[in-house]
UniProtKB/TrEMBL annotation:
It is an enzyme of class 1 (oxidoreductase). Its cofactor is Cu cation. Keywords: Apoplast, Copper, Lignin degradation, Metal-binding, Oxidoreductase, Repeat, Secreted, Signal. This is laccase. It comes from Triticum turgidum subsp. durum. Lignin degradation and detoxification of lignin-derived products.
Length: 333
C-alpha cells in the first residue's frame, strides 16, 4: 500500500517495519492462569463445594485491549475429567461455525468400561444457513420475529447427498468388517434436538455428556443441542455388499414449517475383503436408509431417555447423593 504513495521500495519496507514496531509496542500479551478447582462457598446460610476458577466465584475477569494477545493456561484440578465435550463461540451466532469437539481420553492405563474400540471417530452435528448467520440474527432482532431456520444440517461440516449440490460434501465412515467403532457424537446445532440412526446397524450408548452410562442398544438415538453421546457401532462380520446412510433429523413438537425439517446423511462404507495394503471401498453399491421416527415422536424420546442410567459400578462410581432414600429415588432404583 505504501508503494501507491510513490515511495521507493526500500523506504516503504522501512515504513512497514516501523508500523509493525508501533503496533507491537502498543499491543501486549497478557497471561492468565486458570486453575479449575473445587471451593467451599457459603450462600443463603449453607455451604457447598462448587467448581471454580482459582477458588473465586465468579471467576477472575479477563481484561485485554483490542489487538492484544491473551494467553490463558487452564489447569483442570477437579476429578472426572475424561469424555467427549465440545467448545464453541458465544458471541452472537458465531457458534454456527465456530465449534469443535474436545476429546479427553482416560488416563494412561485406565481402560474404558467396555472393550476398547478399533477406532474412535468424532461425529459433530451442525446447522448450515446459506445466508450470513449474522444477517439472520440481525434481522430477527430487528423484526422481533423468529430467526430464519437453517437450510441444512451437517455431519462434521458436511451436508451430504440429500441436499442440493452437496453429494461431494458427504461425511463417510469407512469401516472394516467385524470391527467396533466408537462414534463420539456432538450436537452442535444451534436449536435442534436430533434423531440419529445408521441403516441396518445398532448403536450401543456408553457415555452421555462425558459420563459413562449403563450400556444399552438402540436403532435410533436422540441428542439435544449441546449434548454429547458416545456410541459403539460394530460393523457386520462380512462385507454386506451395500452402503448405509447414517442420518439425522430433528425432533420437534412445534408447528411444522417453524423448524428445519430436513435430514442430513453421511455414508457408512465397508472396506472390500482381501484388501491390499491400500484399503478400497465401493461407492456404487446399493444404499440402505434408516427409518427415523416421525419429527414429533415424543413417545420415542421418552422411551429413550428412560433408558439412561449412570454406570455407577465400583470401578466407575457415580457421584450419587447418599442421603436417605426419597420417594423418587426409591421408585427409580
Ligand atoms: C470443603 O469443606 C469440606 C468439609 O469441611 C472439606 O473436607 C474440604 O476439604 C473443603 N474443600 C475445599 C476445597 O476447601
Ligand atoms: C429470511 O427468510 C426470508 C423469507 O424466505 C427472506 O426473505 C429473507 O431474506 C431471509 N433473511 C435473511 C437474513 O437471509
Ligand atoms: C434444489 O434444486 C432444485 C433444482 O435446481 C430446485 O428446484 C430446488 O428448489 C432446490 N432446493 C433447495 C432447497 O434449494
Ligand atoms: C437392511 O434392512 C432392511 C430393513 O430391515 C432389509 O430389508 C435389508 O435387506 C437390509 N440390508 C442389508 C444390506 O443388510
Ligand atoms: C418440511 O416442512 C415443510 C413446511 O411445513 C413441508 O412442506 C415439507 O414437506 C416438510 N419436509 C419434510 C421432509 O418433512
Ligand atoms: C405429529 O404431527 C402430525 C402431523 O403434523 C400430527 O398428525 C400428529 O398428531 C402429531 N403427533 C403428536 C404425537 O403430536
Ligand atoms: C417404548 O418402549 C416400549 C417397550 O420397549 C415399546 O413397546 C413401545 O413401542 C415404545 N414406544 C415408542 C413410542 O417407541
Ligand atoms: Cu455455550
Amino acid at each position: 500500500m505504501a508503494i501507491s504513495y510513490g515511495l521507493p521500495a526500500p523506504c516503504s519496507l522501512l515504513m512497514a517495519t516501523l508500523l509493525l514496531l508501533i503496533v507491537q509496542a502498543q499491543s501486549v500479551t497478557r497471561h492468565y492462569n486458570f486453575n479449575v478447582q473445587m471451593a467451599n462457598v457459603t450462600r443463603l446460610c449453607g455451604t457447598k463445594s462448587i467448581v471454580t476458577v482459582n477458588g473465586e466465584y465468579p471467576g477472575p475477569a479477563l481484561l485485554a485491549r483490542e489487538g492484544d494477545r491473551v494467553v490463558v493456561r487452564v489447569t483442570n484440578r477437579v476429578a472426572h475429567n475424561r469424555g467427549t465435550l465440545w467448545w464453541h463461540a458465544h458471541i452472537s451466532w458465531l457458534r454456527a461455525t465456530v465449534y469443535g469437539a474436545i476429546i479427553i481420553l482416560p488416563k494412561h492405563g485406565v481402560p474404558y468400561p467396555f472393550a476398547a474400540p478399533h477406532k474412535e471417530v468424532p461425529v459433530v452435528f451442525g446447522e448450515w444457513w446459506k445466508a450470513d448467520t449474522e444477517a439472520v440474527v440481525r434481522q430477527a432482532l430487528r423484526t422481533g420475529g423468529a430467526p430464519n431456520i437453517s437450510d441444512a444440517f451437517t455431519i462434521n461440516g458436511l451436508p451430504g447427498p440429500l441436499y442440493n449440490c452437496s453429494a461431494k460434501d458427504t461425511f463417510k465412515l469407512k469401516v472394516e468388517p467385524g470391527k467396533t467403532y466408537m462414534l463420539r457424537l456432538v450436537n452442535a446445532a444451534l436449536n435442534d434436538e436430533l434423531f440419529f440412526s445408521v441403516a441396518n446397524h445398532t448403536l450401543t450408548v456408553v457415555e452421555v455428556d462425558a459420563v459413562y452410562v449403563k450400556p444399552f442398544t438402540v436403532k435410533t438415538l436422540i441428542i439435544s443441542p449441546g449434548q454429547t453421546t458416545n456410541v459403539l457401532l460394530t460393523a457386520k462380520p462380512f462385507h454386506p455388499k451395500a452402503n448405509f446412510y447414517m442420518s439425522a433429523a430433528p425432533y420437534s413438537t412445534i408447528r411444522p414449517g417453524t423448524f428445519d425439517n430436513t435430514t442430513v446423511a453421511g455414508i457408512l462404507e465397508y472396506q472390500k475383503p482381501g484388501s491390499p495394503s491400500v484399503p478400497s471401498f465401493d461407492k456404487d453399491l446399493p444404499l440402505s436408509k434408516p427409518a427415523l421416527p416421525r419429527f414429533n415422536d415424543t413417545g420415542f424420546v421418552t422411551n429413550f431417555t428412560s433408558k439412561l442410567r449412570s454406570l455407577a459400578t465400583p470401578q466407575y462410581p457415580a457421584a450419587v447423593p447418599r442421603g436417605p432414600p426419597t420417594k423418587r429415588s426409591s421408585q427409580r432404583p
